[in-house]
Amino acid sequence: MNDMKKKQQTITTVQGYIILVTLLLIPLIFSYLYFNGRVVIDIPEGCGWYATREWDLNYYDCAVGSNQYKVDQLWENESPKDRQDEQGFQKLYGRYLIACTQTFGEVGDKIDFLMSDGTVLKCIIYDSKSQKKTYYDQHPADKWGHNDGAVVLEFVGTADLESNPYKNLGLQKEHTVRAIRYDNILKDK
User: Fold this and answer.
1) Rounded CA separation 111/25 (Å)
2) pLDDT band at 9, cuts 50/70/90?
3) What is the three-class DSSP state of 173?
4) DSSP result, 114-150
5) C-alpha 63: how far from its chain's center?
6) Residue 57 above 60 pLDDT?
């Protein structure tokens, strides 16, 4: 009789472990399938409340042969109607061209920024923000962006954009909470 009880307890224990392991693996499998090797970066509270408008690619020169130049050439080859939306945001492959720190990736990376209201801003990194004091930038960004990380995104676009382009996008009090980095558009070129 005791042997029978021990067998039942062993089977119950094994079943419990199988259920526990399964419950632990399901989120991992889901996460892998959903993110599929993408890099997910959580942005600290207090960062990403503002964005800025930087420059207009029509009037910007970059070093020939640089990754910026390569992205710029892809942008130049886009149909004029696809290079800029009606608000003045410059786009490539339907994604906003932005500058951000290397915390988020390198020039040419496709990256989605998730806002606190659930809005997803689909972007391509066009430029890396300076993180060291230089002659051209006396106020470099920290790990997250300028102004102690308050400015994570700098949009490339025309002067028609608001001083905080989030307003052009209908974002008022929302802020960036997460970034998901995908592949690089230059890797296949």
Assistant:
1) 27
2) low
3) coil
4) EETTS-EEEEEEEEEPP-S--SS-SS---SS-BTTTT
5) 24
6) yes
Neighbours of 68 (CB within 10 A): 21
b/e burial code for range 107-139 (CB count within 10 A of at least 16 → b): bbbbbbbbbeeeeebebbbbbbbbbeeeeeeee
pLDDT tens across 70-92, in order? 999 999 898 888 888 989 899 99
Contact 171, 119 (CB under 8 A): yes
Model-level pTM greater than 0.90? no
Whole-number Å distance between alpha carbons of 114 and 121: 6
Residue type, 60: Y
Q: H/E element holding 22?
A: helix 2-35
Structure-token pair, residue 177: 């909470």
Distance in angstroms (rounded) separating the CA atoms of residues 143 and 146: 9
The tokens describing 83, both together, are 């290079």
Contacts of 153 (CB under 8 A, 6+ apart): 48, 51, 52, 98, 99, 100, 113, 121, 123, 145, 165, 176
CA pseudo-torsion sign 150, 86, 56, 71: positive
